[in-house]
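Supplementary notes for students who missed Thursday's class. We covered one full example, reproduced here. Read the sequence, then the structure, then the short commentary at the end.
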Amino acid sequence: MDEGTVTVPDEQYERLAALAAARGVSPETQLARLIDDAYAGLDADGDAPESLPLGVCDGSDGE
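Structure (token representation):
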């Protein structure tokens, strides 16, 4: 991923910092992980629904 600047509002930064602290990483590292995960979610070749852990769905409406 390209380096860039991301602005996080104060109230969101507090949540980000708390999440990062719970995971033992810096807020910057946690934000980078969240961005990487979001980009990975855009990949059309993602995991098939049947390969997801029990209780996790792919968001499709295949009742």
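Commentary. The chain has a mean pLDDT of 77. The helical segments are 10-23, 27-41. If anything here is unclear, bring it to office hours.
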